[in-house]
Amino acid sequence: xxxSWYDNYNLFTKxxxxxxxxxxxxYAGFYWSKLTKKGSIFGLPLSITIEPxxxxxxxxxxxxxxxxxxxxxxxxxxxxxxxxxIDEVQIHAFYLNFYFxxxxxxxxxxxxxxxxxxSKKIYTATxxxxxxxxxxxxxxxxKSGLSRLTISIDGTTQETYESYRKGGDLTKVLEGAKNMxxxxxxxKSKTPYLIFQFxxxxxxxxxxxxxxxLATNLGVDEIRFKTAQVYxxxxxxxxxxxIEKYARYKKHHDGTYRLKNKMLNECWRGVRVLLHGxxx
Length: 280
Ligand code: SF4
Known about the structure:
Blueprint: H1 4-12, H2 17-36, E1 47-49, H3 64-67, E2 76-77, H4 79-89, E3 95-97, H5 110-119, E4 123-128, H6 135-144, E5 148-152, H7 158-164, H8 170-186, E6 193-200, H9 208-218, E7 222-227, E8 249-251, E9 257-259, E10 278-279
Parallel strand pairs: 1-3, 3-4, 4-5, 5-6, 6-7
Antiparallel strand pairs: 2-10, 8-9
This protein binds iron/sulfur cluster (SF4).
C-alpha cells in the first residue's frame, strides 16, 4: 500500500519554478479578490479538467452520460487537439483532472494521452468504473505514469452495487482493482495512488463498514465516501441517504428538501470551458 504522503510528494514533484510562481499568483489573485470584493486574476490555470470521452458502458441515473442526455457534442477527445491544449498549458498547469462525465478507458487513446501529460510534468488523476481494467490495461496504466486512479465501488454486493451503477458488474470492478494492485506489485510501482470511491446513497448506506473492510483486504491505498448529488431533491428522492453526514439535502418542516450547505458568494474552483475537440 502507498501512503497519502507519497501521493502528496508525487504532486509536489510536478511543481517547477514557473508552475510554483504561477500558483502563487493564482492564490494571491483569489485572496485579493476576496479582500477587495472585485474579481482580479493574476495567474493562469494551475489545474485543468479534460474529458477523454462522453461515452459510458453504464447507466447511472444521475449522470448525463449514463442517461445519454447530453446537450453538447459527444464522442472521444481527439489526440492532436488534446496535445495542443497540453502544450499550451504545461508551462503553468501541474494538475490534470482527466475525467468529467463518461468512462475514460472507452477512449482508445486515453493512456497515450496520460503519458503525454506525464511527460510534461503534470499530475494526472482519473476516475473509472473499472470494467475495462484487464491485466494488460492495468500494466499499461502503470506504464503511462498515471498519478491517481479512483475506482467507483458503491456497494459490496451485486444487488446494492447495481442499484445505482445500472448495468454494472461488481465482479468486474473487484477484478479490475485486483489487476491494478497486482500490476503495481509486479512493476514495483507506487503509482497510481489507488482510491476506492463509495458514493453513499440510500440503497448502499448499510454497507459502509463492509466497504472499508473490503478495501483493506484488497489492499487499495484509500477509501473515500462521497455524498451524492441528485437532480430532483425538493420533494425527496429514493437515493438520498438517511445518514445525515452523507446527505447533501435536509428535510424542512414543510416536508421539502433543501441543500444543507450554504452557497458561498465566491468562485474557488474556476470556470468550465467546454471544448469541441471530440470525434465520434
Ligand atoms: S459510470 Fe460514471 S460516467 Fe458512467 S454512467 Fe455512471 S457516473 Fe456516468
